[in-house]
Design the sequence.
């Protein structure tokens, strides 16, 4: 049986751990540790290895949900994690100084993976820093020569995360026929 | 056996006629018609269109009691504006009234799916009904080519799918009262102009057009614009991309079902008002469950999307060519907009490549009304339109890319939909 993965990436504090917790069927494995560097200003704990959760499907197949560490010093993990992945969920924190720059950084880092699979982007923290329109994010995405859905999301909200993953699925296969 | 009851009221009908109707109702044994003096509490209202002050009475009734079913009576032809409006031409014939009431009772008591309907055929030219018990149990309406109108009897949904299992495919979230958003029109033959006309609407003179005009004014003047429509007040703040309403969705939706001419006005307001309006947003945030009648704040995009859905109800703007490719500039922010069934599938398909609306419906095996609703709403917020580039015509019939992992993707999707339907939806409308 193949192991399929959905990868969650994004900067520190963008909600990757929360997103994995929201979507996972079982209590996820998180490798959060107290932050010891400038990350501490953003949040008290940070993911140092990965977050891991699963979704069990009909037929007992499992989809593995991996949250990558947000800190760039752990970026060696990213390539290992993306093997056999279905697609990338990129979460961007709208309260950060330059979320566009974050977007460029992560898309460039995962470019090969995105080209082979697909991407869906969730903008988080819009309750703190409201987003008038997703247009500017799309303009940046176009510059980076990537296509994908961009939604405002609350990583704690299952329906928001569900929409985002569904957008990823239909980006991979727009003609997908599903049997409800 | 329990007798079912329907709260009924008369508006604009004289006392003598009411007595006659009372006798008529008493002779119906299956249903107990409870006559009320207050039409705002009634489930069914009989309204005389020829009575003095009909317009005011009708609008007040629809405004105060948006869920009411109205049976309009008139000597002249009438074009129904609401889905819940029905019309009988005077002099009222007993069998016509009886059959119409039976149909209305089914709708009101939500028995329409359990009980087989007799076939009713309405001929628009002579305004008479033919009744036949022998035909299949489907309501048929002879095409009424009027625009922005509904035939006398609502079209009964006749869902036809190749596979039952695909019905809910991509339906994302169950949307309550989805007919309010996507209507109940059945699929049409896109090559037949008269059928296309039946699923077209004119946005002009609707609340959708007025709202867009107000947004434009606020942008031009860089000021807050106040819009008053039938005692409902909206404030448009382009700078903050916000719209505020003094009432909630339950009071706004009926306004989308009416045509507005000279019953609205714009006023330019000082931007100092903004602080006062912010209180509405704060109130909404502190109350986790918004009341349907409570004053509310909306994002400009979200409000235009919602109003367009309520206005279009699964129809396309007049003049849309169903055979031409339609593009989607980018995905609508679906997590913050009122839900449309199948929206994610339609968005993914159109974002991938421009395609005609008929092709989208056919390829995805989705009822046309969902595709039309999505297109109308996306067009209203400026994300979608008919493609003008020649290149879009070359690829419009291409099949979308397919994944080798179809099966696993479908399973993930079904899992998400299943879980979404079991979690509480914070419905925007």
Sequence:
């Amino acid at each position: 049986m193949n192991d399929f993965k959905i990868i969650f990436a994004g900067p520190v504090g963008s909600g990757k751990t929360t997103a994995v917790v929201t979507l996972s069927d079982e209590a996820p494995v998180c490798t959060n540790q107290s932050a010891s560097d400038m990350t501490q200003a953003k949040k008290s704990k940070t993911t140092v290895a990965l977050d891991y959760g699963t979704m069990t499907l009909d037929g007992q197949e499992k989809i593995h949900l991996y949250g990558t560490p947000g800190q760039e010093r752990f970026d060696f993990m990213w390539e290992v994690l993306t093997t056999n992945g279905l697609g990338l969920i990129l979460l961007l924190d709208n309260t950060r100084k330059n979320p566009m720059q974050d977007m460029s950084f992560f898309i460039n880092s995962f470019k090969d993976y995105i080209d082979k699979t697909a991407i869906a982007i969730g903008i988080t923290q819009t309750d703190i820093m409201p987003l008038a329109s997703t247009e500017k994010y799309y303009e940046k995405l176009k510059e980076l020569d990537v296509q994908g859905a961009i939604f405002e999301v609350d990583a704690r909200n299952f329906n928001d995360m569900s929409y985002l993953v569904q957008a990823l699925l239909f980006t991979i296969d727009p003609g997908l026929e599903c049997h409800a | 056996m329990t007798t079912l009851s329907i709260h009924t009221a008369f508006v604009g009908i004289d006392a003598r006629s009411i007595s006659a109707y009372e006798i008529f109702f008493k002779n119906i044994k299956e249903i107990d018609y409870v006559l009320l003096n207050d039409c705002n509490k009634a489930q069914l209202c009989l309204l005389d269109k020829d009575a003095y002050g009909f317009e005011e009475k009708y609008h007040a009734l629809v405004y105060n009691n948006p869920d009411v079913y109205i049976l309009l009576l008139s000597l002249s032809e009438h074009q129904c504006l609401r889905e819940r409006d029905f019309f009988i031409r005077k002099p009222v014939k007993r069998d016509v009234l009886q059959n119409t009431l039976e149909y209305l009772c089914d709708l009101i008591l939500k028995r329409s799916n359990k009980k087989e309907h007799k076939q009713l055929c309405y001929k628009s030219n002579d305004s008479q009904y033919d009744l036949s018990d022998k035909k299949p149990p489907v309501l048929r309406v002879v095409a009424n080519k009027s625009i922005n109108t509904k035939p006398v009897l609502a079209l009964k949904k006749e869902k036809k799918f190749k596979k039952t299992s695909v019905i809910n495919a991509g339906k994302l979230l169950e949307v309550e009262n989805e007919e309010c958003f996507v209507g109940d029109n059945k699929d049409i033959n896109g090559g037949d102009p008269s059928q296309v006309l039946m699923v077209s609407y004119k946005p002009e003179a609707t609340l959708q057009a007025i709202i867009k005009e107000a947004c434009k004014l606020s942008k031009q003047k860089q000021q807050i614009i106040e819009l008053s429509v039938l005692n409902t007040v909206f404030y448009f703040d382009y700078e903050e991309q916000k719209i505020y309403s003094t009432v909630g969705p339950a009071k706004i939706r009926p306004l989308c079902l009416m045509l507005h001419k000279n019953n609205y006005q714009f006023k330019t307001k000082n931007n100092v008002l903004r602080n006062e309006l912010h209180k509405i947003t704060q109130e909404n945030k502190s109350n986790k469950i918004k009341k349907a009648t409570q004053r509310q704040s909306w994002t400009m995009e979200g409000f235009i999307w919602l109003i367009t859905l309520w206005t279009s109800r699964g129809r396309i703007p007049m003049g849309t060519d169903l055979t031409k490719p339609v593009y989607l500039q980018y995905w609508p922010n679906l997590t913050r907009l009122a839900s449309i069934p199948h929206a994610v599938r339609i968005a993914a398909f159109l974002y991938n490549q421009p395609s005609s609306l008929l092709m989208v419906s056919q390829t995805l095996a989705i009822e046309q009304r969902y595709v039309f609703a999505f297109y109308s709403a996306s067009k209203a917020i400026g994300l979608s339109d008919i493609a003008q580039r020649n290149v879009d015509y070359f690829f419009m019939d291409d099949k979308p890319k397919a994944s080798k992992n179809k099966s696993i993707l479908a399973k993930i999707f079904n899992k998400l939909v299943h879980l979404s339907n079991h979690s509480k939806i914070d419905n925007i409308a």
